[in-house]
Write a structure and sequence with these properties.
The protein has 470 residues and is α+β, with helices and mostly antiparallel strands. 39% of the residues lie in helices and 17% in strands. The relative contact order is 0.12.
């Protein structure tokens, strides 16, 4: 059934946009609801609103410098620093106009709507990000954490979706960002949401620290804690080795890869191929983009998976009917290991809770014999540099990265005593629990905003009072 709305020419927004999406009834209904509450437009309350650096190249990234926020870092209201990169101070100084600070806001400019609160003392932003600083005169009326919670609520997301425009590459223009309206809610609600965000940030820090402890313990027990393999610029390889490996690309024979394995052998660490632990292996499916929906059961692509779990980033969904047809073979179960094989090969994650959704063809679902190896330990080995170096060797020389199943099964896994594996797994589980708590807090903040708009501010405060923050 067709959905339509009728607008007069005099009612067209901005520069007379005539695309129908802008005037979708769903968006108009949201605007009507928000107009019944005291509000301010972002354009009225921002001191600075800038899009990020346009022409910086990946070769300019450094391991230590000024934090550089990219669109992939915007997750669930905070900046995810698990894949954070940095730029040199001299480049940052040249682009000082896009420097942002703690309690500033970053919004995705392309691809999908998202907003996050900054906890960095200072940082810079990429071309796909819009940075916002609120006027000091408005910070007493609109807490930045509350603004982020609103933008990530169904109301704020709907507004951002309304203003996204373009045919091939969707984007959010600066003038349209300034048109977004933000309800002015009770100070008590805003302060509580700010407290929620601060605690969520602390939980994320704790999660990262625990995961780092697990990695450190793994490397210490393997005798690799201070080991740095040396990449050589020139080296030779035997023709017989090239024929045996069926590879002639130079990268495959980089001595640094074999150096890691030799170091483990020197420490008398037993190595076994991954296939020794696999009970079953199942590739996901691609049902076709025409079956993607905005609501339904999650369709997990490579971009929706990290070493910490599922990422709600440009999430696609499938209908209940499609899900029911596919779930028997392509739905991950609690305890399964998900492993990416395409685009970003080698991301391993143990499914912690029962999940309703379908995995894409770029992801493998592994069932592992946990009497032989701890699953969390196995996933960490794959995610560590021990696994990454082998994986890089396998797909080296390719333009589009594909990690083949026969290569995956040969991945060498170092074995530590099961008691040590359990200690490492315990740290990873605690890391997961802290990250889960952070996500629950951020979702509660969004929910409180929606309750305040739909049911009233007192109900929102009552809801927040029941949330265990720390």
């Amino acid at each position: 059934m067709a959905v339509f709305s009728i607008k007069k020419l005099s009612e067209l927004e901005g520069a007379k946009r005539i695309d129908a999406e802008l005037y979708h009834p769903e968006y108009l209904d949201i605007c009507h609801v928000l107009a019944t509450i005291p509000y301010a437009k972002l354009g009225e309350i921002v001191q600075k609103c800038k899009k990020g650096i346009f022409d910086i190249k990946a070769e300019n990234y450094v391991s230590d410098g000024v934090p550089f926020i990219r669109i992939s870092n915007l997750k669930n209201g905070l900046v995810d620093d698990s894949d954070l990169t940095f730029i040199p101070f001299d480049i940052h100084r040249k682009e000082i106009k896009t420097e942002f600070h703690r309690n500033d806001i970053v919004i995705s400019k392309t691809a999908y709507p998202a907003a996050s609160l900054l906890f960095f003392e200072y940082c810079n932003i990429s071309q796909d990000i819009i940075g916002i600083s609120l006027k000091d005169s408005w910070k007493t009326r609109l807490d930045p954490a509350y603004v982020v919670a609103f933008l990530n609520s169904k109301y704020g997301l709907s507004e951002m979706l309304q203003w996204f425009q373009g045919n091939i590459q969707m984007h959010l223009a600066l003038p349209d960002v300034k048109r977004i309206i933000v309800p002015i809610l009770n100070d008590n609600i805003q302060k509580k949401i700010s407290e929620v965000y601060t605690n969520a940030h602390e939980q994320n820090k704790r999660s990262k620290s625990l995961y780092l402890q697990a990695e450190t313990l793994l490397l210490k027990e393997l005798g690799l804690r201070d080991f740095n393999p040396k990449y050589k610029k020139t080296y030779t390889a035997n023709l017989s080795d090239a024929l045996s490996a069926r590879r002639i690309d130079a990268e495959y024979f980089q001595p640094a890869y074999e150096e890691v394995i030799e170091k483990l052998k020197e420490k008398n660490i037993e190595l076994k191929p991954l296939k020794k632990f696999i009970l079953s292996i199942q590739k996901g499916i691609e049902p076709g983009s025409e079956k993607y929906q905005n609501v339904g059961k999650p369709f997990i692509r490579v971009s929706n998976l990290s070493i910490y779990g599922f990422i709600d980033r440009d999430q696609k969904y499938l209908s209940e009917e499609v899900y029911q047809d596919l779930k028997e073979d392509y739905e991950p179960k609690q305890g399964d290991i998900l492993l990416t094989k395409d685009a970003t090969p080698g991301i391993a994650y143990v499914v912690k809770e029962q999940f309703e959704g379908i995995i894409s063809s770029g992801i493998l679902k592994l069932q592992v014999n946990d009497r032989e190896i701890n699953k969390e330990y196995l996933a960490l080995c794959i995610n560590s540099f021990i696994g990454k170096m082998q994986i890089e060797r396998d797909y080296g020389g390719s333009i589009i990265f594909h990690w083949k199943p026969e290569q995956i099964k040969k991945l060498k896994i170092p074995l530590l005593p099961l008691s040590t594996q359990q200690k490492i797994a315990s740290l990873i589980q605690k890391s997961h629990e802290a990250r889960k708590k952070a996500k629950e807090l951020l979702n509660a903040a969004k929910k409180a905003v929606e309750i305040a708009i739909e049911e009233g501010e007192n109900d929102a405060l009552n809801y927040l009072s029941k949330i265990k923050i720390s």
